[in-house]
Design brief:
Layout lengths: L13 H11 L1 H13 L6 E5 L14 E6 L2 H7 L8 E4 L15 E7 L7 H14 E14 L5 H8 L7 E2 H8 L5 E7 L9 E7 L1
Parallel strand pairs: 1-2, 1-4, 2-3, 4-5, 5-6
Antiparallel strand pairs: 5-8, 7-8
Length: about 210
């Protein structure tokens, strides 16, 4: 579920969303996330579920990148971020025929700031898709805002006001991932944005 009411509506426009992300330091966040947690190699095939405007692509060096994004404005904006051998599929995880438009198996499936926009049912479907895509030895990696015990007040308030209405704590996050990926590692970080903000980074394996 996503709340696009009131002032939040402007963030559905690709150019506005990209500018807002730049302002809070999301570019650095993605760089650190890519280097320390994703660890993409030049031979990897990557599927990025909910790729937004394609910003994550500039922090990776894969053999092939396929984004999945339901917001048409974001898809249009992503053309400036992806390479000539890449593509962005305009679809949501629940769309019929999506699986047939994707590779048989990939090395990495990413979800960058996506799971907290999905209720448990849709999140589980997204995880089933990810598990179906990942080859033996491949990985699922995600990053999302998280609720933590003793959370800083500013971080808690920002997380609760996010457009995504399904921000979870670490165990709730694990509960939607573990049915599809039995091996789940969760790292909590509060140092990735210019603002006080807590993230959960998931690395999961079949």
């Amino acid at each position: 579920m996503e709340d696009n009411s009131g002032y939040r509506r402007v963030f559905t426009v690709g150019s506005v969303y990209r500018t807002a992300q730049w302002a809070i330091g999301a570019n650095r966040m993605m760089r650190v996330f890519a280097n320390q947690h994703v660890r993409c190699t030049a031979s990897d095939i990557v599927v990025d579920i909910g790729c937004g405007t394609g910003e994550m692509r500039s922090h990776l060096n894969p053999a092939r990148y396929i984004g999945i994004e339901p917001n048409a404005s974001y898809v249009d904006k992503s053309a400036a971020s992806i390479g000539p051998s890449d593509e962005v599929v305009s679809a949501g995880v629940e769309d019929d025929g999506l699986r047939s438009r994707l590779p048989d198996q990939v090395d990495l499936v990413l979800m960058v700031g996506v799971l907290h926009h999905l209720d448990d049912d849709v999140a589980c479907k997204a995880m089933q898709l990810a598990a179906d895509l990942v080859r033996p030895g491949g990985r699922f990696v995600s990053i999302d805002p998280v609720l933590v015990d003793g959370q800083r007040r500013i971080s808690h308030n920002l997380v609760k006001r996010d457009r995504g209405r399904n921000v979870r704590n670490a165990e709730q996050l694990r509960s939607v991932i573990a049915p599809s990926f039995p091996h789940v590692n969760i790292t909590l970080r509060g140092d990735l944005l210019r603002l006080p903000y807590d993230h959960a980074i998931v690395e999961a394996f079949i």
